[in-house]
């Protein structure tokens, strides 16, 4: 299967291929502790749509550039100048504007729907008139929030396994983002915090929905989310937020992620992607439903030639699997 397109580019993300079939996505705003601004959110689904469909990618590493942070979360300074977090205007000021996702203001990104055709720049429609009625303003806010929720969900919906390498500060959005990956590892000095209550809101792009299911401890989830307190790598490991703490610094953790990814990409992509699909699907459903879906899934996927190849590999023969 040939590549359908080149990856979309952005100054805020570095994309490299350190090993065959392994993509490394690095959040690239180190001068601001990799804090997110709107163009970064909007680029995520474009980038991960490409990686999801590229037959040359079987595993993805996600990390943050620089020595200080995976990401410090939302760029509060930028968010406070416009959108939902901006301060209310004075009585003499014009009525507040609804937040809009104005793609035309993001020249560093090319936009298109993930149809398998090359990414080309498209001119988005003009933003709608600013609503003044409270119900219409609420509807506009709803659209704004769900748009950004879907940006992060693009990682969770990616069929390829994603391993997050966490170091330095992992605040707010960093928790949201890492919960959309499959495996989380960190360095001993990593500091975590669900910070949203400290800026006057409930976390709204994934942490409150995913964290409890990831760690299975409602008391601890409420502890860290209600208090916004910091916690360290040893606590993250103890409660299951990360699967391992890698001794050393960020580069050591990236090396560990590469070692893990190298092992995974040598296996059948049909088996690996099917395993991720079945685990994620079963997470929110009964065991009975999960078993039924698994049976239907494997009724199709067991017909692959990869099973025979994998059996030969178990016997010590070197095998390669076709692209998927």
Question: What is the terminal separation in angstroms?
Answer: 7 Å
Are there runs of 5+ residues with pLDDT below 50, and where? 96-122
pLDDT averaged over residues: 87
- Per DSSP, the total helix count is 11
Give helix and strand order, one letter per element, not per position. Answer: EEHEEHHEEHEEHHEHEHHHH
What does this structure look like?
This protein is an alpha/beta fold. Helix content is about 40%, strand content about 15%. It contains eleven helices and ten strands. The radius of gyration is 21 Å and the shape is globular. It starts with 12 loop residues before the first strand and ends in a 10-residue tail after the last helix.
Write the SSE topology.
Blueprint: E1 13-19, E2 22-27, H1 38-53, E3 59-64, E4 69-71, H2 76-79, H3 134-156, E5 162-166, E6 169-171, H4 173-179, E7 183-186, E8 191-193, H5 207-215, H6 218-227, E9 231-232, H7 233-238, E10 244-245, H8 250-265, H9 269-283, H10 287-301, H11 306-314
Quick summary:
The protein is of the alpha/beta class. It has helices at 38-53, 76-79, 134-156, 173-179, 207-215, 218-227, 233-238, 250-265, 269-283, 287-301, 306-314, and strands at residues 13-19, 22-27, 59-64, 69-71, 162-166, 169-171, 183-186, 191-193, 231-232, 244-245. It has eleven helices and ten strands.
Annotation keywords:
alpha/beta; 4-stranded mixed beta sheet; 11 helices
């Amino acid at each position: 299967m040939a590549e359908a397109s080149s990856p979309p580019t952005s100054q805020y993300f570095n994309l490299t291929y350190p090993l065959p079939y392994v993509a490394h996505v690095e959040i690239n705003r180190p001068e601001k502790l990799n804090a997110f601004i709107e163009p970064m959110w909007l680029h995520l689904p474009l980038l991960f749509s490409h990686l999801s469909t590229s037959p040359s990618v079987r595993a993805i590493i996600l990390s943050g550039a620089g020595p200080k942070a995976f990401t410090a979360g939302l760029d509060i300074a930028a968010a406070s100048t416009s959108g939902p977090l901006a301060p209310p205007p004075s009585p003499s000021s014009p009525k507040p504007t609804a937040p809009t996702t104005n793609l035309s203001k993001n020249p560093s990104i090319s936009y298109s729907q993930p149809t398998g055709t090359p990414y080309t720049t498209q001119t988005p429609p003009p933003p709608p008139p600013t609503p003044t009625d409270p119900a219409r303003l609420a509807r506009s806010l709803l659209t704004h929030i769900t748009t950004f929720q879907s940006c992060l969900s693009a990682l969770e919906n990616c069929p390829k396994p994603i391993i997050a390498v966490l170091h330095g500060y992992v605040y707010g959005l960093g928790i949201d983002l890492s919960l959309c990956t499959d495996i989380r590892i960190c360095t001993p000095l990593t500091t975590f915090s669900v910070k949203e209550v400290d800026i006057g809101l409930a976390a709204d792009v994934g942490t409150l929905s995913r964290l409890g299911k990831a760690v299975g401890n409602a008391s601890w989830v409420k502890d860290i989310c209600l208090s916004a307190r910091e916690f360290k790598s040893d606590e993250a490991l103890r409660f299951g937020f990360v699967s391992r703490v890698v001794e050393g610094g960020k580069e050591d953790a990236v090396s560990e992620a590469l070692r893990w990814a190298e092992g995974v990409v040598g296996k059948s992509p049909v088996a690996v992607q099917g395993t991720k699909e079945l685990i994620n699907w079963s997470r929110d459903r009964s065991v009975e439903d999960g078993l039924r879906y698994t049976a239907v899934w494997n009724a199709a996927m067991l017909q692959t030639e990869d099973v025979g190849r994998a059996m030969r590999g178990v016997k010590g023969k070197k095998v390669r699997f076709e692209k998927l």
